[in-house]
Write a structure and sequence with these properties.
It is a single chain. By secondary structure, this protein is mainly beta. The chain contains no helices and 23 strands. It has a single domain, classed as AttH-like domain (AttH-like fold, Beta Barrel), CATH 2.40.370.10. The strands form two sheets. Strands 1, 2, 3, 4, 5, 6, 7, 8, 9, 10, 11, 12 and 13 form a 13-stranded antiparallel sheet that branches. Strands 14, 15, 16, 17, 18, 19, 20, 21, 22 and 23 form a ten-stranded antiparallel sheet that branches. It is globular, with a radius of gyration of 19 Å.
Length: 369
C-alpha cells in the first residue's frame, strides 16, 4: 500500500497504500539511520495474530483500508481509512509519559459522486495517555475517538466520525491472508534492504453506516486491507509511485505497483494475482507496466494525475477508470503530502472485472528522497 506520509526521506510505501503507500509522510525532518530500529530481512516469518499488531522496533507502519460501498438505493461510494504509527527517533530513553516517541496519524476519506470530489479529514497526535496508540499483539489502533480494532473472531471494527461525515463499519474476512512477494518480504527497489513486511486481506465483506451531516445511511460492500511496516529508505532515484489493489468480480485479488524513476522509467515494479481458489501468480519488474490513458488537472493544486490507467501484468491487460476525477488528498496540514487516492473500476478484455483503489504519488511534486 504505498501511502504518502510526511517523511520525505523515509520509505513508507500504502500501500497509501500512502497510501499509500501508502502509504504520506514526505516532509518531516529526517533523522539518521539508527541501530535502535530493526531492518527488514527476507528470512522473517510472519506469525499471526502477533503480526496483526504494532511493530515498535520499526520506524514506520500503517494499516490501510480501501473499499467500495453501496447505499440501500444502489448509490456507489468509495472510502479510505488509514492509521500510521511513526517512530520519531527521539526520546527513546526518556521515561516521561510526555516524551514524543511515536506519532499516530489517521486519514479518513469518502468518494461520493453526488458531491463530486473527495471528502477528507486527517488527525495527528503523539502516542500516549491511552488516547493515541498502536498496540502490539493484534490490530488495535486509536487516535482519540477514532478507532480501528480487530476482534478475536477476526472481524474488524472501524469507528471514525467528524462534523461533516464519518464511518462505522464492520469488516469480515472472506479469504485467507495474502502474503505479498516473498512470504511477506516485499521488495521496493533493486537493493535487498529496500523492502517492507507486507500482507493484505482482500475481499473483506463490509456492512455498516456512513454518516453525512449526522444522518446515517446504511451501506454494504467490499474492502481491501494492507498492513505494512519498515525501516528502510526508498531508492534515491525514485520520485513517486503508482499502486492499485483490487477485488475482482470472480473472487480473485490483484495488487500491482511501480516506483517511478526520476528519468521517467521505473525503479521497481511488482504484481500479484491470486485466484478465488488461492493460487497466486507473482510478476517481476519486467512483467509489470503502468501506462496512463487519461490525465486530470487538479483545480486545487494544479497537479496533473493519470487518473485512467492501462496496466499490464504478464500477458494480462487491465484498464482502470476512476469513480470520479477529483479524488486528490491534500494532507499538508498533518502528514505533509498531496497525492491522488481514488476508487476505480477495472475492465479486462473490455468486460467489467472488478473494483479497487488507485494511489498516485509524486505528481504534485517529486519526492525528495
Amino acid at each position: 500500500m504505498l501511502s504518502g506520509k510526511s517523511m520525505s526521506q523515509y520509505y513508507f510505501f500504502p500501500f497509501v497504500r500512502l497510501t499509500v503507500l501508502s502509504f504520506c509522510l514526505f516532509t518531516a525532518t529526517a533523522f539518521a539511520e539508527s541501530s535502535e530500529f530493526m531492518p527488514v530481512v527476507p528470512d522473517y516469518k510472519l506469525t499471526f495474530p502477533r503480526d496483526y499488531g504494532a511493530h515498535q522496533d520499526f520506524r514506520i507502519e500503517w494499516w490501510y483500508v480501501t473499499g467500495w460501498l453501496e447505499t440501500e438505493d444502489k448509490k456507489p461510494l468509495g472510502f479510505q481509512v488509514t492509521f500510521f504509527r511513526y517512530a520519531t527517533g527521539h526520546n527513546q530513553d526518556n521515561p516521561s509519559r510526555f516524551a514524543a516517541k511515536y506519532l499516530i496519524i489517521a486519514h479518513l476519506a469518502l468518494s461520493d459522486p453526488a458531491v463530486g470530489k473527495l471528502m477528507h479529514i486527517e488527525r495527528t497526535a503523539r502516542e500516549g495517555f491511552n488516547l493515541a496508540y498502536a498496540k502490539e499483539g493484534n490490530t488495535d489502533v486509536r487516535l482519540n475517538d477514532w478507532t480501528f480494532v480487530r476482534e478475536e473472531d477476526g472481524h474488524y471494527q472501524v469507528d471514525m466520525q467528524a462534523n461533516d461525515f464519518g464511518l462505522q463499519l464492520s469488516l469480515t474476512p472472506t479469504q485467507m491472508i495474502m502474503l505479498q512477494d516473498q512470504n511477506g518480504f516485499s521488495r521496493k527497489g533493486p537493493k535487498s534492504e529496500q523492502a517492507s513486511y507486507y500482507y493484505s486481506e482482500p475481499h473483506l465483506s463490509v456492512t455498516g453506516t456512513v454518516f453525512r451531516h449526522n444522518k446515517p445511511v446504511t451501506v454494504s460492500g467490499r474492502a481491501w486491507l494492507d498492513h505494512e511496516w519498515s525501516t528502510a529508505y526508498l531508492d534515491s532515484d525514485a520520485d513517486g509511485w503508482d499502486w492499485v489493489g483490487a477485488n475482482l468480480d470472480d473472487g480473485s485479488a490483484l495488487m500491482a505497483f511501480q516506483i517511478r524513476h526520476k528519468n521517467g522509467g521505473k525503479v521497481w515494479a511488482y504484481a500479484a494475482l491470486r485466484d478465488a481458489s488461492g493460487n497466486i501468480s507473482f510478476f517481476n519488474p519486467e512483467q509489470v507496466e503502468f501506462t496512463p490513458t487519461r490525465t486530470w488537472r487538479s483545480p486545487h493544486t494544479d497537479a496533473i494525475y493519470p487518473v485512467a490507467m492501462h496496466i499490464r501484468t504478464g500477458e494480462t491487460e487491465w484498464q482502470l477508470m476512476p469513480l470520479l476525477d477529483d479524488q486528490e488528498l491534500d494532507s499538508r496540514q498533518s502528514a505533509g503530502a498531496v497525492y491522488w487516492e481514488g476508487a476505480v473500476t477495472l475492465t479486462r478484455d473490455n468486460k467489467p472485472a472488478g473494483r479497487g483503489y488507485l494511489e498516485l504519488t509524486g505528481y504534485f511534486k517529486p519526492l525528495a528522497l
